[in-house]
C-alpha cells in the first residue's frame, strides 16, 4: 500500500528547491511590493520591471533563493521527519509542537541566505551606484561577512525565526492534519487530488499566520544602517499604515506561497511514493 511509504529526511529540501525555481518571480514581486512605500500595483509593476530590466530580472537572486531552501527548508522538513521518531504526531498538538520546533531551527539556519535573497531581489530597485551586485547567494554571504561582519548575516534573525515557526506550523502541521482528516473520509485516497487540496488549504493558513512577520522581516533585512532603532521601531513605523499595513502584499504573498506550498508538497509526495522507504 502506497501510504506505508515514508519520506526520507532530505526530500522536503529537494521538493522546496524545485518549487522555489518555479515560484521565484512571484517572490521577487512580493519583496518589491513590501519594500516600496508607494502604491504601484502588481499589474503596473510587472511591465515596469520587464521594460527597465528585461525578463531575466524576475530571476534576480535565484541562487540565494535556492541556497535558502537548501538551508531553511531542508532543516525544517528534516527536523520534522526525524522528530516524528521522538514526538507523538498522532495528535494535532504533537504536530504543532514538532513543526514549531523544526521551524525555529530552520529559521536560524536559513537567515543568512534569506537576507541575501531579499537584498539581491531588491537590488533591482536601487540606483546603479547603490546596488550591491552580489554574483550569487554564496558571494553575497562572503561579502556581507567580510564587509559587515558575522553578526550582520543574522540581521532580521528574530523575525525570520518567528516566521519560520509559524510558517512550518501553517505548512507542515496543518498539511499533515488536513491530509489525514481527508484520508479518513471515504472520498479521498493518497493521490494528487488529496495532496493538492491539503496543500492549498495549508498554503492559505501559512500565509495568514506569517504575513505580519514577513512584512517586518523584509523591512528589517532591507533597512539602511540606523534607519530603525530596533524591531519595535519597525512595528510602529508599519503600524502608521493601519492594521492592514501588516498584511501589505497579502495577495502576492498568497499568490507566491500558495503555489510554493502546493508544489512543495506535490513534489514531496511524489518523492515519498516513488523513492520513500517502508518501515519494517
TrEMBL record:
It is found in: Membrane. Transmembrane segments: none annotated. Its main location: membrane. Coiled coil: none annotated. GO terms for cellular component: membrane. The keyword Lyase does not apply. The keyword Membrane applies. Gene3D superfamilies: Mitochondrial carrier domain. SUPFAM superfamilies: Mitochondrial carrier. It holds the Pfam family Mito_carr. Solcar repeats lie at residues 7-86, 94-181, 190-274. Keywords: Membrane, Repeat, Transmembrane, Transmembrane helix, Transport. It is a multi-pass membrane protein. Belongs to the mitochondrial carrier (TC 2.A.29) family. This is Mitochondrial dicarboxylate carrier. The lineage of its organism: Eukaryota, Metazoa, Ecdysozoa, Arthropoda, Hexapoda.
Amino acid at each position: 500500500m502506497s501510504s506505508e511509504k515514508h519520506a526520507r529526511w532530505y526530500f522536503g529540501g529537494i521538493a522546496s528547491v524545485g518549487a522555489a525555481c518555479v515560484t521565484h518571480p512571484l517572490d521577487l514581486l512580493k519583496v518589491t511590493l513590501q519594500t516600496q512605500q508607494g502604491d504601484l500595483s502588481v499589474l503596473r509593476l510587472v511591465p515596469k520591471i520587464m521594460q527597465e530590466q528585461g525578463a531575466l530580472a524576475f530571476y534576480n537572486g535565484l541562487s540565494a533563493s535556492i541556497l535558502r531552501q537548501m538551508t531553511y527548508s531542508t532543516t525544517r522538513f528534516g527536523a520534522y521527519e526525524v522528530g516524528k521518531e521522538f514526538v507523538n504526531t498522532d495528535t494535532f498538538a504533537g504536530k504543532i509542537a514538532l513543526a514549531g520546533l523544526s521551524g525555529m531551527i530552520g529559521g536560524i539556519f536559513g537567515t543568512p541566505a534569506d537576507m541575501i535573497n531579499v537584498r539581491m531581489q531588491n537590488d533591482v530597485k536601487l540606483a546603479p551606484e547603490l546596488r550591491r551586485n552580489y554574483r550569487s547567494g554564496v558571494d553575497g554571504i562572503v561579502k556581507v561577512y567580510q564587509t559587515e561582519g558575522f553578526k550582520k548575516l543574522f540581521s532580521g534573525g528574530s523575525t525570520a525565526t518567528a516566521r519560520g515557526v509559524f510558517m512550518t506550523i501553517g505548512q507542515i502541521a496543518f498539511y499533515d492534519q488536513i491530509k489525514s482528516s481527508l484520508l479518513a473520509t471515504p472520498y479521498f485516497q493518497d493521490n494528487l487530488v488529496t495532496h493538492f487540496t491539503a496543500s492549498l488549504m495549508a498554503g492559505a493558513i501559512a500565509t495568514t499566520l506569517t504575513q505580519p512577520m514577513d512584512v517586518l522581516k523584509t523591512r528589517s533585512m532591507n533597512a539602511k544602517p540606523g534607519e530603525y532603532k530596533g524591531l519595535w521601531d519597525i512595528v510602529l513605523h508599519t503600524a502608521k499604515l493601519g492594521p492592514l499595513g501588516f498584511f501589505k502584499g497579502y495577495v502576492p504573498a498568497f499568490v507566491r506561497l500558495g503555489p510554493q506550498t502546493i508544489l512543495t508538497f506535490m513534489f514531496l509526495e511524489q518523492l515519498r511514493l516513488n523513492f520513500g522507504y517502508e518501515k519494517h
